[in-house]
């Protein structure tokens, strides 16, 4: 089933996108900072969410991992 139609898979993809963008921005900030608008601006926004809300994102990742490993 596609991640678009399964809510848990959609949340997993969004969390992975946020974590990946924040990690890439921590390594090379210039890659994401030059594209703040437009379609590629989505990655910059995900990186900002990952940086500013990192405790909440970490808790969501732990809950999602627990859910995937033990509930499914």
From TrEMBL:
**InterPro entries (UniProt xref):** KISH_domain, Ksh1
Q: Where are the transmembrane segments?
A: 54-71
> In which domain of life is the source organism classified?
Eukaryota
List localization entries. Answer: Golgi apparatus membrane
Family designation: Belongs to the KISH family.
Listed PANTHER family: PROTEIN KISH-A
The protein's name: Protein kish
